[in-house]
Amino acid sequence: MVIAGGGLAGGLIALAVHRAQPRLSLALVEAGETFGGNHRWSWFEGDLAGEAATLLGCFAHTSWSGGHAVRFPGFERRLAADYRSLASRDFDAALRRLLPQEAIRTGSRISAIDAGGVTLESGERIAARSVIDCRDFSPSHHLRGGWQVFAGQAIRCTAPHGLAAPLIMDADLPQHGAYRFVYALPLSETEVFVEDTYYADSPVLDRALLEDRIAAYCAAQGWAGEVVEREAGVLSVVTGGDAAAHRALFATPGVALAGGRGLFTHPLTSYTLPFAAETALAIARVATLEGPEIAAMLDTRAAEHWRATGFYRDLGRMLFQAAEPEQRWRIFAHFYRLPDPLIARFYAGRATALDKLRVLTGKPPVPIGRAVSALLGKGAPLVQ
Ligand SMILES: Cc1cc2nc3c(=O)[nH]c(=O)nc-3n(C[C@H](O)[C@H](O)[C@H](O)COP(=O)(O)OP(=O)(O)OC[C@H]3O[C@@H](n4cnc5c(N)ncnc54)[C@H](O)[C@@H]3O)c2cc1C
């Protein structure tokens, strides 16, 4: 099996397949010098159950017990769900330790892909019985939505920062024409990871500006020290469109399409980790099949995933279409007054019909007419 792209999805597939079929010959082909790029992936403990939790347990990661917190104008709340975070350097280190040496193909850019294997830019051909394409997601004119733009820094403080639990959203801040919040993780007693995030209409990332705002936020908390880690991202928040047409644009006959590229994403948070773990385990269960059979299995899973996540796209349209940018925070504030278990199911992508009803009822956080037209509308084109 050849896995194209050693990001989160590709790396998890490689590990799950190797654990299930240790004798199957594997290549995890990554253009960069390390697996996973420069990321920090986080998730709630309840997002992963059973085997998926065991798979992620193979990677050294930070775990917090004692729940997490959110803060909005007028209220702060502590929620029960425990939080986890994995740094890409730990992802890379574990894959190098756990995969067979011959499977590790970093620094190898693929120039062509087909059902029989991949061809590298160097001209080398890696033939395979099955090929899984996990290269990056790209937006297309088949999708509709908005953007999540962010920059983050880990800061080694000169004194204990005093943050007791992960602060998943601090939206009690100037909004700057988007839904803006700061996300802060206490990595140790003196190290804190701070990310400034915007649900914005445009994908423009002004990294210097966001880093200035992180510095201002840290100063207001009394956190001073040295920046030891940096990340930035622009993720699409898909609120509608034609998933099958989008996937067809990136599909190669007989090649399985997985990861963000295959649209295995939480539409509202743009996170992929729980779906990447489930997909990896599903592939591991059928790893000895021919490539086209695995590709067909993933097509079916992608269609099911798209159907199952429609509600999150509806909420995304409410966020981007029904609320003025400066007022978008009200939708999340409304949501964060709901019961704790409902919030946990929501993030895990497992909201029940009753949960969905509760999210949409009560005193509306946006004008009702605009909410209805957003729900009935198609959303803005993602690529403008
Ligand atoms: C800074 C940042 C923070 C994030 N935080 C979270 C989080 O906390 N939780 C979460 O779930 N999601 C998070 N995300 C979203 C994240 O994009 C996805 O969850 C996840 O990384 C997607 O995994 P993937 O494997 O589909 O794609 P990627 O991780 O983007 O991996 C694709 C890989 O393919 C490689 N590649 C591309 N083209 C080629 C080629 N021609 N040849 C060889 N290799 C190639 C790339 O180098 C890359 O390593 C974050 C994203 C960013 C940018």
CATH fold descriptor of the largest domain: FAD/NAD(P)-binding domain
CATH superfamily of the largest domain: FAD/NAD(P)-binding domain
User: What is the number of independent domains?
Assistant: 3
* Percent helix: 25-40%
Average pLDDT figure: 94
How are strands sequenced across the largest beta sheet?
A: 6-5-14-15-16-13-17
> How many strands in all?
18
- CATH architecture annotation name of the largest domain: 3-Layer(bba) Sandwich
Strand content: 25-35%
Shape: globular
Q: According to CATH, what is the class of the largest domain?
A: Alpha Beta
Order of helices and strands: EHEEHEEEEHEEEEEEEEEHEHEHHHHHHH
Q: Spans with pLDDT under 50 lasting ≥5 residues?
A: none
Question: What small molecules are bound in this structure?
Answer: flavin-adenine dinucleotide
Explained architecture:
By secondary structure, the protein is α/β, with parallel strands linked by helices. The protein folds into three domains: 2-62 and 85-141 and 242-308, FAD/NAD(P)-binding domain, CATH 3.50.50.60; 144-238, Alpha-Beta Plaits, CATH 3.30.70; 322-376, no CATH class. It has helices spanning 8-20, 50-56, 88-98, 207-221, 243-250, 273-285, 291-308, 310-322, 329-335, 340-347, 353-360, 368-376, and strands at 2-4, 27-29, 40-44, 62-63, 68-72, 75-79, 83-87, 104-105, 110-114, 117-120, 125-127, 131-133, 143-157, 167-170, 179-186, 191-200, 225-241, 256-257. The protein has a seven-stranded mixed beta sheet. A hairpin with a 2-residue loop joins β9 and β10 (117-120). The radius of gyration is 21 Å and the shape is globular. It starts with a strand and ends in an 8-residue tail after the last helix. The model has no long low-confidence stretch (mean pLDDT 94). The structure holds flavin-adenine dinucleotide. Residues 4-10, 29-32, 37, 39-42, 109-110, 134-136, 231, 233, 235, 259-261, 270-273 line the site of flavin-adenine dinucleotide.
